[in-house]
Amino acid sequence: MAPAAACLGHGSNINTVCVMDASGELGLGLVQRLIQRDYTVHAVVQSHGDHHIKLKFDEISCAYKNKLKIFQSDPFDYQSIIDALRGCSGLFYTFEPPQDQPTYDEYMADVEVRAAHNVLEACAQTDTIDKVVFTSSITAVVWRNDRTSILSDLDERHWSDVNLCRNFKLWHGLSKTVAEKTAWALAMDRGVNMVSINAGLVMGPQLSITNPYLKGAAEMYEDGVFVTVDLDFLVDAHICVFEDVSSYGRYLCFNHIINRPEDALQLAKKLAPSTPAPPQSYEEDKRIIQERINNKKLNKLMVDFERGSHVE
After folding, report:
1. Who's near 60: CB < 8 A, 6+ residues apart?
2. Which pTM value belongs to this model?
3. CATH architecture classification, 16-276+285-309
């Protein structure tokens, strides 16, 4: 399947894309998969990123010479963003909290929003950029005052309520909602071709009980909207919406829902292996929470996606 760039600006290479921030597991996964699909990748990492990630990039560079260029960038250093985007036809953007400020709070929400604004503005100023894939979250969808009374399932049309997130200190939901809305507003105003991936809880090697997505997990479970996504599936979804010329708008991305007691227990043991065995009454609980969220739009798009195919 060929990439989406139908009309490219001067100086672009249809096979060259940028991954920002590549410091996290999603960014690293995207870099690896894109190179395997014969793209040249500009990988943007934090100046003080994870040492393991840096070693992994060294391995990739040795294996795929001339396919990977590393850029150190700060989302508040506008020129460094411009430099990383130069010559690229697409951008995969995902926010990674700074290494010295890993905790989500109200301050981090402001940081994420300003970073999204800077990156989209840089894309608008880069003639070669044809498409942006913006990583958001299911938490930008599910936190609504009417979430238990709404008649239809939650989908791409729904947004989390910013005031509810702020009142209950759901900082992850607040950050993702405002940052994504900021990106959409700027993209529409400046004519940037953007799609967003609203991901469930990412089931990757770095999953831990401190993940800010988990704030409000009990409520998401009871509401039938507690969803997870395997890291490989999430990577594939990003590449699919980039390469498919028909992709548009938002896409909810998950491939599992936590809606049974055994599902919740299994996740709890992954997050905290020392979790004690539940009481007998819990084991006898066969209740299944009705699923109240759907990702049909993405599933339809991915039907013909070939994971192993290369760019043309």
Report:
1. 31, 32, 35, 67, 68
2. 0.90
3. 3-Layer(aba) Sandwich (3.40)
